[in-house]
Amino acid sequence: MNEMRDRSTALAPLGEGARCALISPSGPPVPGAVDEGEALLRSWGLEPVLGAHALDRHERASGYLAGSDADRAADLSRAWTDPSIEGIFCLRGGYGAIRLLDHLDTEALAAATPKPLYGSSDITALHEFWQQRLGVPTWFTPMIATRDLLDSPGNVTALHAAVMGERRWELASDDETATLVSGEARGEVTGGNLSLLAMSTGSHPSVVGRAEGRIVLLEEIHESPYRLDGLMQILLRSGYFDGAVGVGLGTWVDCGPLDEIRALMTELLTPLGIPVVWGLRFGHGPDVSSFPIGRGVTATLTADEQPALAFD
């Protein structure tokens, strides 16, 4: 098996008529948003294929889980191993992806030809699994059936460009982007949602990665500053950042005063002695980037008067 060839199929653009699975690895999607997401994909010339359990609700936790763990994992595994499916879109995040990890057959997944897997937030658990257990990159993008995507023309444009391969990958910045710790770093890109990375520290060691030699990206939503502090303590004390070469901080939607969060991250990350950039446009909210993450995806983080993260 040619590993680099297989990685490249996970990063390849989708073509006209590509069949794309729509699955719910985490929370239950809003049905109306699913219809809008399907219509959006069709407008791009793609053929959406709804997973068998995509609209399910968990018998006990119907408010926050889309069906049973086994059924959600089966939809994901079926989409990944079905050669007629060329891409996989996660309908939404929420919570629950980490509960799938013990239901995934690593050997069966590894035997399949890789394909693009799109999602963010709670899907960070799958990004980590794909990076550490399968050695395959994935895509950190807004979910196809969420208001974050559907109500943001900028997000739609960025996702479309990533999916269809219309331009070079990018991680956007704006007037708020700033250097917290100066320097330059190059390495593989890892990370994602802070709370999911913290949850992953309790997973089997072969699932959880360490950031050695990598640039770590972090973002969050709906967590207060003291909670962010606690989540960072879990990662720091677990050794997650050991050997990391840089940190890029994204959006912090509904997490409290941004000045307070910026000061917290400066306090906690400066002792690492690696470049840190604040305010990159990825995560939740409007006008965020869609980009690949994980195994084989490398970039340069520049922390100076014009901070940026540029993919190779």
UniProtKB/TrEMBL annotation:
<dbReference type="InterPro" id="IPR029062">
    <property type="entry name" value="Class_I_gatase-like"/>
</dbReference>
<feature type="active site" description="Charge relay system">
    <location>
        <position position="219"/>
    </location>
</feature>
<dbReference type="GO" id="GO:0008236">
    <property type="term" value="F:serine-type peptidase activity"/>
</dbReference>
<dbReference type="GO" id="GO:0004180">
    <property type="term" value="F:carboxypeptidase activity"/>
</dbReference>
<dbReference type="InterPro" id="IPR027478">
    <property type="entry name" value="LdcA_N"/>
</dbReference>
<keyword id="KW-0720">Serine protease</keyword>
<dbReference type="InterPro" id="IPR040921">
    <property type="entry name" value="Peptidase_S66C"/>
</dbReference>
<feature type="active site" description="Charge relay system">
    <location>
        <position position="284"/>
    </location>
</feature>
<dbReference type="GO" id="GO:0006508">
    <property type="term" value="P:proteolysis"/>
</dbReference>
<dbReference type="InterPro" id="IPR040449">
    <property type="entry name" value="Peptidase_S66_N"/>
</dbReference>
<comment type="similarity">
    <text>Belongs to the peptidase S66 family.</text>
</comment>
<feature type="active site" description="Nucleophile">
    <location>
        <position position="121"/>
    </location>
</feature>
<dbReference type="InterPro" id="IPR003507">
    <property type="entry name" value="S66_fam"/>
</dbReference>
<dbReference type="Pfam" id="PF17676">
    <property type="entry name" value="Peptidase_S66C"/>
</dbReference>
<keyword id="KW-0645">Protease</keyword>
<dbReference type="Pfam" id="PF02016">
    <property type="entry name" value="Peptidase_S66"/>
</dbReference>
<feature type="domain" description="LD-carboxypeptidase N-terminal">
    <location>
        <begin position="21"/>
        <end position="139"/>
    </location>
</feature>
<feature type="domain" description="LD-carboxypeptidase C-terminal">
    <location>
        <begin position="186"/>
        <end position="297"/>
    </location>
</feature>
<dbReference type="InterPro" id="IPR027461">
    <property type="entry name" value="Carboxypeptidase_A_C_sf"/>
</dbReference>
<keyword id="KW-0378">Hydrolase</keyword>
<keyword id="KW-0121">Carboxypeptidase</keyword>
<protein>
    <submittedName>
        <fullName>LD-carboxypeptidase</fullName>
    </submittedName>
</protein>
